[in-house]
Amino acid sequence: MKSTVKEIAEGVKARLVGDGTVALSGIASIESACAGDLVFVENEKHLRQALESAASAVMAGEFAAGQAASKPLLICSQPRLAFARAAKVLCAGSLGEAGVHPSAVVHPSARLGKEVRVEASVVIAEGAAIGDRTRVSAGTVIGFDVSIGNDCYLYPNVTIYAGARIGARVIIHAGAVLGSDGFGYVRDRATERYEKFPQVGRLEIGDTTVDRGALDVTRIGRGTKLDNLVHIGHNCQLGENVIIAAQTGLSGSIVLEDNVVLGGQVGIGEHARIEEGVMLGGQGGVLPHKVLRGKGVAFWGTPAKPVREYLRELAALARLARKG
Amino acid sequence: MKSTVKEIAEGVKARLVGDGTVALSGIASIESACAGDLVFVENEKHLRQALESAASAVMAGEFAAGQAASKPLLICSQPRLAFARAAKVLCAGSLGEAGVHPSAVVHPSARLGKEVRVEASVVIAEGAAIGDRTRVSAGTVIGFDVSIGNDCYLYPNVTIYAGARIGARVIIHAGAVLGSDGFGYVRDRATERYEKFPQVGRLEIGDTTVDRGALDVTRIGRGTKLDNLVHIGHNCQLGENVIIAAQTGLSGSIVLEDNVVLGGQVGIGEHARIEEGVMLGGQGGVLPHKVLRGKGVAFWGTPAKPVREYLRELAALARLARKG
Amino acid sequence: MKSTVKEIAEGVKARLVGDGTVALSGIASIESACAGDLVFVENEKHLRQALESAASAVMAGEFAAGQAASKPLLICSQPRLAFARAAKVLCAGSLGEAGVHPSAVVHPSARLGKEVRVEASVVIAEGAAIGDRTRVSAGTVIGFDVSIGNDCYLYPNVTIYAGARIGARVIIHAGAVLGSDGFGYVRDRATERYEKFPQVGRLEIGDTTVDRGALDVTRIGRGTKLDNLVHIGHNCQLGENVIIAAQTGLSGSIVLEDNVVLGGQVGIGEHARIEEGVMLGGQGGVLPHKVLRGKGVAFWGTPAKPVREYLRELAALARLARKG
User: Fold this and answer.
1) How many Cβ atoms are within 10 Å of A276's Cβ, its own excluded?
2) CA–CA distance, A298 with B154 (Å, rounded to integer)
3) How far apart are CA A286 and CA A290, in angstroms?
C-alpha cells in the first residue's frame, strides 16, 4: 500500500527530517532496496550505506539526528521495531474477498462471523464457529465443535482437531496440526501390551503441532510464537510472549512461564517447569520434573545448566583430551 | 456414551463397592471432574481428594478396598489401565455416518469395504482398497494400489504413497505422510553429482512420516506407536509394541526389536540394531551399525551408553570443571 | 516399462556379457529378486549370491568380467550408479494423463504450460505459473504469483506460499511447506512484547520446509536434496549438490556451500557458514556466526569440532569416569 514518508513517520511516531512528501511503496534491506522502499539502520556505521542506497527513505536511531542526509530520515529510539510497524502498513496485502468458495464444505450448523473468507476445498465440521474477518485458506480442515476467534489467519492445509479453542488474531501456518491426541499409553502388566490412555482434554489457542490435553486443558498464552516443526505434548501450559524456535519438542505436562525463550531442537522432559524469562540454547535438554529458574539466565547443554558452567566443562574436557 | 457404574465395572473386570446404578457419562482428572465423570487413583494418598471431588465414581487399586467411601468404588489391580478401558466406552464418539461425500474423488477401480466413511475432498487413486468400517477424513489422499485394512481411522490431510500396505485398526494422525520415497542417492564419481537411487520397496503398516523401503520392504509391527514428527527411513524393521516419542529419527535399514522404547529427539544411524526391550533416553544418539542390547536396560547420551555409565561421566566432568 | 538386457546395457553404457535378448521388467535387491528383475553387486563376495538369485540379470563391477556366469552380466565401473539409471527406465511410471481435474480450482489468471497435470482438489492462485509437463498432485495449494518450472513433480498436500520461485525438475514430497514466513520478531523495549518483523523476501527453488526470506532472497542450488522434516530458516543460501538428512534445522542467514553433507538432527545457528565439501555428523551443532571449513573434513558434536578431536574427548572423558 502506498504511503508518504510523513504518513509513515506519524504512524510509527518517528521524527521526520527532510521531505515528507516522498512516496513509499515497500520495504527492503539496504542491499536490495529500490526506489520507493524504506530501509532501516540500527547503528551509525551502516548509515552512510543506507543513504547511498536506492531506497527512498531511512528509518534510523537518534545517532542520525545531526547528520547531513540526502534522503528523508525517520528518527526514533527503536528503529527496527518502527520499521516492522511501517512494514505492516506498506506491505499490507489484501486478505482477499470475504465469502465461502463453492467447493468448500461447511456444515449447516457451523457459525461463520462477518467478512469471513473460506477458500476452496476447506472443510468445516458440525458445531464449529469462526470469528469475524478470519481467513481459512484452501485445504484446511476444521473439526467438530472447534471455535476460532476474530481476525485469525489460517494458511492452507491446516488441520484442527475436534474441540480446540483458538483465540483472536492467531496465525496458523500451512500444514500445522492443532489439538491432536496426546501420546499417552498405559501398559497392561498381564499382556505386556500398550493401550491408549484417554485424551479428552482440549487445546486452547496455539499455532503449530500441538497435542490435545490428556484429561486436562493445554493452554498457550497470548503473544507466544512457535516456529516450524515444534511439538507441544499434552497438558502443557505455555505463558505469554514465549518464543520457541524450530524443531523443539515438549513432552507432556510442562510449564513454560512468561517470556521463556527456547532455541531450536531443544527437548524438555515431562512435568518440567521453566520459570519466567529463562533462555535455553539450541539442542539443550531438560530432564523430567526439573525446574530451571532465573529471569534472563541462559542455560545450555543436556542436561541443561547455566551457560557459563557448561562452557567451563567444555573447556576442561578439551584440556583433558589434549593432555591425552 | 452413557453407562452405569455396574456396567463399567463388569466391562473392565473391576470389583464394585457401592451403588452400581449410578450413571456415568464421561471421564476426567480429579481436578476437573464434574457429576457423571469417572476418575481414577493409583495410590492411597490421592484417594481422599478423589472422594471429595465432584466425580460420580472412583476407579482405584486394592488399597481402597477397606476404606469408607462416599461414592461407588471400582477396585482392580491396574486402575490406570482399567480407567483407559472404561474411557473407550464412555468417550466412544460416533465415527460419523458411512458413505462417500459427493466432493470426494474415488477412482472407479478402488474397492471400498462395508460401512466405510470417505469425507469431503478425499482423493482415492486407482487400485486402492479400503477395509470395512475404516474412516478416511477430509483432505486425505490415498495413492495408487494402496491397501488399508478394517477399522482404521485416517485423520484429515494424510498422504499415503502408492503401494503402501496398512493393516487393520491403524490410526493415522492428521498431516502424516506414509510410504514416501526413501532418501537414497548415489554419487557419480565422474561428474560428482548425486543421482536418485531407486526406491521401489513398499511400506507395510505404520502411523507417521515413514519412508517407503529402498528395494526391500519396510515393516512396522502390531501395537507399535509413533508420536508426532517421527521420521522412519527406508528399509527399517520395527517390531511389536515399540514406542517412539516425538521428533525421533531413524535413518535407513535399522532394526528395532519388540518392546523397544525410544525417547524424544533420539537419532539412530543406518543399520543399527536395538534389541528387545532396550530403552533409550531423549536426545540419545546411536552410531551406524551399532547394536544395543539388554532387556530393560536404559541407555542415554551420544554415543548412547548405559545410563549409569553416562551419569558417571557427567559427574566426572562436572568435578573436573570445578577444579579448573 | 519392459526392456531387454541389451537395451539397458546400452542405455547405461555397461558392457554386456551373455544373452542380450533376456527381458527385464523391474529391479530388486538380491534377496527379493524375481524373474524379470535386474540386481546389482558392488564387490566380488556378493556375486555368487546374485547369480544364484531369481534375478534375470546382474549389474556388476569389473571384478565380474572373467567369471563364469549363469545369467547376463552388465559390467561397468560404477554398478550402483548404473543400476540407479537402469531403474529410471525399468520403473518409469506413467505420470498420469495431462489435464486439469474438474474439482481443481485454478484462477483464470494462472498460466499452465503444456501437458501439465493438475489433480483433484488442487488450488492454484492468481498469477501463478506452472511449467510444461509438471504434475501437481491432489490437495496441493499453490499461492499467489508462485512460479514453478518444467518437469517438476509435486506430491499431494504440498503448500507453496505466495511469491516462491521453483526451478525445473524439482521434486516436492507430500506435506512439504515452501516459502512460509521466516520466524522473525522484534521486541518492543517499552511493552516487552514481540512484534512480527516483516518477511517479504522470496524463496527460490527447494523441496522441504523452507522459510521465505526475511527481506532478502533464500536460494537453494541445483541438485541439492533435503530429507523429511528439514527446516531451513529465512535468508539461508544453499549451494549445489548439498545433502541434508532428516530433521536437521538451519536458523536464519546461514550459508552452506556446494557439496556440504549434513547428517540427521543437525542444528546450525544463525549466520554460520559451512564451507565447500564439509561433512557434519548426526546431531552435531554449530554456533551462530561460526565458520566450518575443510573440503572432505568430517565434524561432529556440539559445538562441532573435527571428528578426531571429538572422539579424543569422548575417550578422555570415559577414562576419567572410570578412574572415579
Assistant:
1) 15
2) 42
3) 7
> Is B234 marked active-site?
yes
- Per 3-state DSSP, chain C is made up of helix, strand and coil in percentages (nearest 5) of 15, 30, 55
ipTM above 0.95, yes or no: no
Q: For B29, which of A185, A196, A216 is closest by C-beta distance?
A: A216
Which residues 6+ apart lie within 8 Å of B65 measured at CB? B15, B17, B75
User: Cα(B216)–Cα(B234) distance, rounded to whole angstroms?
Assistant: 8
State the CB neighbour count (10 A cutoff) for residue B66.
8
Give the whole-angstrom CA distance, residue A202 versus residue C172. 34
Whether C174 and B161 lie within 8 Å, measured CB to CB: yes
Q: Which of A154, A200, A216, A248 is the best substitution to test chain B (most B C-beta atoms within 10 A)? A: A200
Binding-face residues of A in 90-149 toward C, CB within 8 A: 91, 93, 101, 103, 119-121, 137-139
C313 neighbourhood in chain A, CB within 8 Å: 317-318, 320-321
C25 in reach of chain B (CB within 8 A)? no
Tell me whether C80 touches chain B (CB under 8 Å): yes
- Put simply, the chain B residues between 253 and 272 with a CB less than 8 A from any chain C CB are 265, 267, 269
Q: Which of B108, B100, B140, B112 is nearest to B126 (CA)?
A: B108
pLDDT in tens, chain B (324 residues): 789 999 999 999 999 999 999 999 888 888 888 899 999 999 899 999 999 999 999 999 999 988 888 899 999 999 989 998 898 888 766 667 899 999 999 999 999 999 999 999 999 999 999 999 999 999 999 999 899 999 898 999 999 988 888 888 888 888 888 887 666 677 778 877 777 776 656 666 644 555 555 666 788 888 888 888 888 888 889 998 899 999 999 998 899 999 999 999 999 999 999 999 999 999 999 999 999 999 999 999 999 999 999 999 999 999 999 986
DSSP state of A109: T
Residues of B in contact with A290 (CB under 8 A): none
Q: How far apart are CA C296 and CA C307, in angstroms?
A: 12
